Amino acid sequence: MKSIGKVLDISFVQGKLTQDAVNKIKAENIRGVIIRIGFTGYGELATTMDTCFEHNYKLLHDAGIPCGAYYFTLAYTEAIADKEILFLKAELSKKKFEMPIYIDVEDIHPNKPTVHSKAWNNCNASVRTANVAKICKALNDEKYYVGVYASKSYFGSKLLESPLKAYDKWVAQYYVTCTYKGSYHLWQRTSSGNGALYGIIGRVDISETDLDFPSIIKKNELNGYGAKVEEKKEVVCPITGKVCASLSS
């Protein structure tokens, strides 16, 4: 990969960004920020919004910093995948994103394992892959630039390559280089980035990209950048009180 710049990813762990943090991120010429939009809880399988998503999206987007989103999946059954699709369609449709939408696929390591976290971690690779692919296809059909996030070791072991070939990859490998042999355009190289450099308390994940995602997404009218359907306004006849025409607003 020939990197053209850095990409950050944040969640509730980094808390609500301050305006000072946004200014520092912009000053560092970060290519984009991938924000956790939500997750499926392994207690009751509830699709849940990240508590800091709305705040962080607004500050970053208003500052002109390209934003993407990621969702922590727990789709070990098709029914769970369907719930996640409904959540993502509803929430993503409210925003525009200049960076991709990623499905985050990784093991859960809770202090108190639940039946659901165990089922996810022990899920057959073909089943897990089929459910992740279903989510990706559903979002792709809605004109989102979709990708899959996982560690290098997860790709090819707990996720099968072929069913996910159509979707971009975000590979996590904390090493001097990414040795993943498949196609990818985002490499998460560390989880120990100096958060203070970006006005963030503690550590922050840092990735490298070789693709100008915003240009591709906007050019192809993806992620909410498609042409809007003209809104029709009904015209009521003042005499009969009935709709007599509809005009474009």
Describe the protein's architecture and organization.
- The protein has a single domain (5-248), classed as TIM Barrel, CATH 3.20.20.
- It contains six helices and eleven strands.
- The protein has helices at residues 19-27, 53-62, 78-92, 115-121, 125-141, 213-219, and strands spanning 5-10, 32-40, 47-49, 67-72, 101-104, 146-151, 168-172, 186-194, 203-209, 232-236, 243-248.
- The radius of gyration is 20 Å and the shape is globular.
- Residues 245-249 have low confidence and may be disordered.
Instruction: From the 3D structure, determine the CATH topology.
Output: TIM Barrel
Helix coverage percent = 25-40%
CATH-defined superfamily: Glycosidases
Mean pLDDT: 93
- Which architecture does the CATH hierarchy give at level 2? Alpha-Beta Barrel
Number of strands: 11
Query: Unreliable stretches, pLDDT < 50, 5 or more residues?
Result: 245-249
Profile the largest sheet. Answer: 8 strands, mixed, barrel
Global morphology: globular
The tally of helices reads 6
What is the N-to-C order of secondary-structure elements (H for helix, E for strand)?
EHEEHEHEHHEEEEHEE
How many discrete structural domains?
A: 1
> Proportion of β residues?
25-35%
Main sheet: strand order? 1-2-4-5-6-7-8-9
CATH top level class name: Alpha Beta
Distance between the termini: 47 Å
Radius of gyration equals 20 Å
